[in-house]
Amino acid sequence: MTIRIWLKRDSGQYWPSIYHTMPASCSCMSFNPETRRLSVGMENGTISEFILSEDYNQMTPERTYEAHQGKVTVVLFVLEMEWVLSTGQDKNLTWHCSESGTQLGLYRTIAWVSGLQFDVETRHVFVGDHSGQVTILKLEQDSCSLVTTFKGHTGNVTALCWDPAQRVLFSGSSDHSIIMWDIGGRKGTAIELQGHNDKVQGLCYAPHTRQLISCSSDGGIVIWNMDVTRQETPEWLDSDSCQKCEQPFFWNFKQMWDSKKIGLRQHHCRKCGQAVCGKCSAKRSTIPLMGFEFEVRVCDSCHESITDEDRAPTATFHDSKHSIVYMHYEPTTGWLLTSGADKVIKVRQTRPDVTDVKRLV
């Protein structure tokens, strides 16, 4: 139930300059460095705003929003619009005027929201929820309209990241996957990235190096090179028999009877999408340009076509050594912050020429 502001001292160590107790447990926050405005969402549905002093040694209460009937899951301050966007476990997306404190609008989602991003230029808000759906809305001063919805995850959406320059949206999920949605290309392109063994907890984009940084609850941090031409994964094809050896699958009773053969289990090649049996897809390979940094099932012919150059990794893997619950990246300095279930905050320098980790308890 506390907020702490940590300052780096001349010794290089971080010490809390502010220790502020809140009326309820804090569930999320948003900070705007330009205005030094700190927006804090709480489990009682309230959002409290503070203004920090120039030396970051004092915080002054500014305004309180009675925004939700349940826990606030995401809060976002948009300086250009003077809006405070928030979502809660009451399945409501609300936006308030930060000047007057009045509620401007409300949108009801199909499930409670765990990811929220906003594009200032188009006034589009991207909403990821626990049904696995991503919804795009066009916000106006006192209303909103549905633009479209995406459904590509088999688990709930846990994180969103918007790159306004490339017009690309990244979504992470409890199904361990990341999807890159090409919004600006208007072609409906969706690129999968498979590099985590647990729930994706955070996504950040480094525009200067064109890298996507992702983290998962098992402590894994993956830095993806997005300055490469990636390929969409193919649609899985339907078939009653193996598309390589023509052996029937176990539900194809007629062909099993006619050929006097036992039906086989169906698999799919991750490179071509064909329906194949286990014998025709016994080999494994990484396919980094398709987002598969781990070895996956491929058919024999695709395995032969994959070269060593095709297997060159497009991501690097790191261990944070704690179970990550939140991640933030500051592109101007290259600092990457992670907070864990162990109640430890770690700050890392992601530049390749510097290896430095600071630990805040």
From TrEMBL:
One of the protein's GO biological processes: positive regulation of fat cell differentiation
What gene makes this protein? LOC110520350
Q: Which SMART domains match?
A: FYVE, WD40
| Domain FYVE-type: from-to ranges | 236-307
Pfam families recorded for this chain?
FYVE, WD40
Checking PROSITE patterns in the record gives:
PROKAR_LIPOPROTEIN, WD_REPEATS_1, WD_REPEATS_2, WD_REPEATS_REGION, ZF_FYVE
A GO-annotated cellular component: early endosome
Name the InterPro entries on file: WD40/YVTN_repeat-like_dom_sf, WD40_repeat_CS, WD40_repeat_dom_sf, WD40_rpt, WDFY1/WDFY2, Znf_FYVE, Znf_FYVE-rel, Znf_FYVE_PHD
Keyword annotations of the record: Metal-binding, Repeat, WD repeat, Zinc, Zinc-finger
What stretches of residues are WD repeats? 150-183, 193-227
Question: Lineage of the native species?
Answer: Eukaryota, Metazoa, Chordata, Craniata, Vertebrata
**Protein's name in the database:** FYVE-type domain-containing protein
Record GO terms (molecular function): zinc ion binding
